[in-house]
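DATA SHEET
Item: assembly model
Revision: 1
Owner: S.N.
Input lines:
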Amino acid sequence: PVKGSYNKVPPNGWQLTPPTRMTLREQLREKISAAFYRHGLLCASYPVPIILFTSASILTCCYPLLRLPLPGTGPVEFTTGVRDYSVPSHEPQGDLGERPDWYRGLPVAYIQQVLVKAAVSPWDSSLVPVDVFRSPLGRVFNLVEEIRNHVHQDSSGVRSLETLCLQVSDLFPGLRRMQSVLPEHGCLLVSPGNYWQNQRELFDSDPDLLKTIQKHEPKGLHTSATLRDLLFGVPGKYSGVSHYNRKRVVTYTITVVLYRYDASFLGSLRSRLKQLYPSANCSLRDDHMVHVHFKEEIGIPELIPLVTTYIILFAYIYFSTRKIDMVKSKWGLALAAVVTVLSSLLMSVGLCTLFGLTPTLNGGEIFPYLVVVIGLENVLVLTKSVVSTPVDLEVKLRIAQGLSNESWSIMKNMATELCIILIGYFTLVPAIQEFCLFAVVGLVSDFFLQMFFFTTVLSIDIRRMELADLNRRLPAEAGLPPPKPGPLRPREVPPPPRPSPHTITLQTPAFRNLRLPKRLRVVYFLARTRLAQRIIMIGTVIWIGILVYTDPAGLRTYLAAQVSEQSPLGDPGGGGLPPHFGVAPVFHGRDPTSTLRVVHPAPQPTPLPENQSQGHHGAARAGPLPHSPPAIPQITWGAEDEEGWRRLSFRHWPSLFSYYNITLAKRYISILPVIPVTLHLSPQEAIETRHPQDTRHPPPPIPKVSADLQTDLTLYKVAALGLAAGVLLVLLLFCLYRVLCPRNYGQNGVAHGRRRRGDLPCDDYGYSPPVSEISPLLLRGHSMDIECLASDGMLLASCCLAGQIRVWDAQTGDFTKNNSESSCQRDGLDSGAPELDYLGSEGHDPSISGDGLSEDEGYPLRRRTAPSRPTLFTDQPDLTPLIDTNFTLQPPSHLSTPPRGGFDFGGLVERAYMEHEPPSPSTYPSPSSPSSSPPSGALLQRRPSLGDAAASLPQDRVSAVGPQATADWDSSVWAMELRGNLIAAGRSSGKLELWDAVEGSLRCSNEEGVSGITALAFLNNRIVAARLNGSLDFFTVEINKPLALLQHRGTPGRGSMPPSPCYSSEDVISCQLTRSVQCAHQKPITVLRAAAGRVVTGSQDHTVRVYRLEDSCCLFTLQGHSGGITSIYIDQTMVLASGGQDGAICLWDVLTGSRVSHVYGHRGDVTSLVCTTSCVISSGLDDLICIWDRSTGIKLYSIQQEVGCGASLGVISESLLVTGGQGCVSFWDLNFGDLLQTVYLGQSGDGQGVRQLLVLDNAAIVCDFGSELSLVYVPSVLEKLD
Amino acid sequence: MSLTLTAMSDSTASSGQQQWAGSGPMPQPPRGPYISVITNRTTNLLIRGVLLFSVGVFLALVLNLLQVQRNVTLFPPDVISSIFSSAWWVAPCCGTASAMIGLLYPCIDRRLGEPHKFKREWSSVMRCVAVFVGINHASAKVDFANNVQLSLTLAALSIGLWWTFDRSRSGFGLGVSIALLATLATQLLVYNGVFQYTSPDFLYIRSWLPCIFFAGVITMGNIGRQLALYEYKFTQEKTHQD
């Protein structure tokens, strides 16, 4: 074989390694995978023909199934003649092909029914309705007595009923209440007399017969035979025992169950009864004996395990198909997987049947196990493998590659399973062998279907997904807001590109409350999923199905008839057989209408108007009186009486026997021809047997209408009632639906977005959902990825990997600037060198400097009280003149429109840029000038924040100023902090630099440390630097002027920034190392936070240390983590939270150093931690955001994010959380964890994640985004803040 | 109808394991002032225990029904209550036993320091349960030539179950020991006449009983491990239905 394989190298250059060195196994593997590859190509290339071919083969293989009997437990029967009857032998006889194979041995019992039809005739008007059945029923005692006492004597001896009948013992233990009615310890002989213990005295003294009969009826819906049917032997409505018996004929049977068949005894009994009670017009055939074979029935106790296995099966299928991921249609693929498995099973059964192996196992029982054995695993493995192939490949190649990747494991698994099954086959237990056979065929056909059907479906799906991607990539129509992405964005699909104002309209959920009670949320959940409706619908369908199936004249009968007709034994016998030897269907030839016809036997085959019997029996009383037809009850014998038991429920006999713990399953009974008995009673006799209370019954209302009309009316009544009930039900459901599900299905989201703020629907809390367009403003200028980000609320400093620091004004979108200002108030001008450059803002500074002082006083207050609502703009009329004249045209339009209009950003900036173009080549203003000369802002170089950054870069470089001598060129900035207008930058060389943020000059630097600064904290006039070697340095910033600004950093107004009053460039700033804590930690310090006079450090050495800022004294060493510390949070309220690599989060009391709580929340590192007043929010490497209750440490809930998302967290207000994702930031409602909005930061931001996220005081969010900064301003947030 | 004991009636398993679980340290968090932590953990444990208990009771009832011999096709309506009344304590015992086993397995995994990584998915667990029910089904319904054949087949099936779904040495050891204990206890119970088997062939009980016990232990351990794995996500799914 090795030799041969050299020549069999696949033609498409598949073999990667030379075949000479391969072992046999590798060769095999190579071949298999090559074959799978080619097969995958084939499937993906011709999907439609292959699917057609597969469907055709499935149908072909399933064709033999049509010959299988349908499911159903209807009995089958077989008719023989009475005369030549002999008990069939046990041994199967080959030549008797027409005999069913169950017809062997003794039957369980022979049933002899004596059918009694009795009537009081002639009917007298003096008779009351009870007379219709009282005296006829009374005669049953005589009859039973007669039968019991019948003795036949011939040459072989004396035989009585006692010797022949089936002797029964106790009733089944659970049936004590039936003890009084059913016979025990003796002959099984049932008749209506059993109601009165076969005692005439009890019957005579019974005041209300109907009540006695009714007493034993089960309540409610019953499907099996009732006691009344059992005792009367005819269905209840045919018995005629009621007050409203129009025909006045009572029918009942006396059923004798015989153990042995004795023709002579039965013959003598028959002749005796015929002699006593002749029915002259009776032409019933009495030469047929029907053997009824009962199949196994599934009772509730057997149904429960079956149902359980099916539940387990469905759970298995559910859990398996749930894993299908990253495809276009999850449901479609899951369906395809299930179809694959099911049709492979059907194919296996079909094929087995085709080859002559008829399934004897109960298919329903082994089916779940077969599914489990075959399994869905291969399908899932295939899907996973195909999906994980590179996306940029062609679909065909993806399928082929995915298939060939998994080929070896698939083949190996299949071989293993086949081996196991083979072993099972050799257990030589027939049932197991059969199971194994089915399983083998099922496995093979499953493999076939997987390869052809499922692979093709998968290829179609993948192709659809790629098409959908293409469609999504098409640019959205201009002017229309692009559709809002769902809360779960597909991972593979990058966010769609957006037109230049990156606005997203939040499609408001029409139903969102701020604080919903839990029960309401449950109701909404029900409403959202429409659970109630679905359950009701399913219930209704099931109910209807049950009704249809159990209807005696309905589907079940039909199915049973079909079964017996289709069975191969169905054809009546050949020529040499007796004419009445054959199998008849159970309810043969009876179309459903015939059951109706029984009531009104119009077209009888024996339409003799019976006067003869009258003459026979009642001649002694009176002559045949010419009564009107209804007055003389006519007793007719029709063909339907011949086998009256057919009208009974097919469970009649099984239930009768089961009362005595005798099963009929897989056995048969023989039903002998009935013995007809006709009774005519005189009115005299009827009156005599009356009970005194009988006459008290009111005579029944005799309607004038004919019976037909009567039934019709009933029908109409029922129909009308049903209709009314249906309408009522629909109305009720509709109301329920409206109550439960007030969801607005109309797509009015667009109209929503265009509505004014005031028109928005408010909920009970007066909260209008945020209908806002959030526009991220991109601050461009960095050439490399941004490394550090710092802000003090006023200014924003950013540093990129190139070592370039840029300073921006964080105050944008402010109402004082009419939303028209560019985001980049101060644009740090880069010089390509690690130095800080400064450029004045455009158009902003003049206005600010004009009213700088007044703004200063009013600002802190106003920032809290005045949101950016346009309506409030009118409250500030004094500002308009202060605005740069270039923009005076803009305010009115902005005042009248929601802020959406204000963000036509590019155009404005473009214009501003054009206007300020002339001054730009002018020389750079002296750094000291801004404070002194108000118009100097106009002289500053204007820079557009968008678009033109790159173009104007060279000239910026030209105008770069700054003390380059002291700057560190080689090392990079690792940490940066910003306070006031001082930027502290820590470098990898261990150097600490202080820059003036306004002027862009290096003020001082400290080079005492050698180890790189990993983290910085800048609080008041102190700087704390953590170094790589684990030491902690405390610096003091000395300014010769009092540090008024630095000490109250919260108060400085925005306007005071450029003309910084606190210190000027003449001030000498020095930075001195006051204390250095060597070996603050054994391992590198990872986190450093400072607040409330405390400095907290976290390190790789699993500890957290708390220092006092003033004297650099170590207060506590907090131990409790079992991994390195990855994040720390501390705020002014002395709340300290720390998260570590062990996924644990600890809350500490900073005052005492004790651990308040300790929770494990993440699998993996805790990447960031934020606290609000009530909760702690943590995010981890497991892409989970957990929200914990701060006081109890109990997890409130968690949000599963997408993979690779959300290391950065920020809290905007008490209830608004912002997280960074892949090229986007998401806003979450903290109360419920709902995703409020996702803002995409840019067109190109597919792959870039937001690594740092900074929440500014005015509810703006700054996040880094590759080499760009993005400023996201959330207008709606301000409303919540207030 | 004589009392037929269900396959799951490992009453001894319950008694034997109670001792075992008592001596074996449960994963209790360190005591201290951290009330919240304990409530969280214990709630978790409790939920898992209750879940396992109900699964055990349910399986016991269902499998008991499977084992009832089919003398009567149509059971009279009271047959279910009679089943419940005949050995009412069987189901709770099975429930307790399965809760113990299900909690014991992840605990032992943690003790031994070898977390169980093999096929940790719900679909696999469901498959395992289905196979277990199938084994019971086979023991109840399939007609074997003799008892030895039946027992050998079931033993092979049980080992196959372990190999397919568990493959851990600790699982095998625990399964075998619990099966032996349970068989012993059943022997004792039958000897004392608490109940009896219809046709005992192995001292007083059926010879396939240890196999069924073994398979049951493996299944319950599988479920318990999966629940323990799932415990982090459990509270999340309850609160956060998104």
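QC remark: The helical segments of chain B are 11-23, 35-67, 79-86, 90-112, 122-141, 147-165, 169-191, 209-239.
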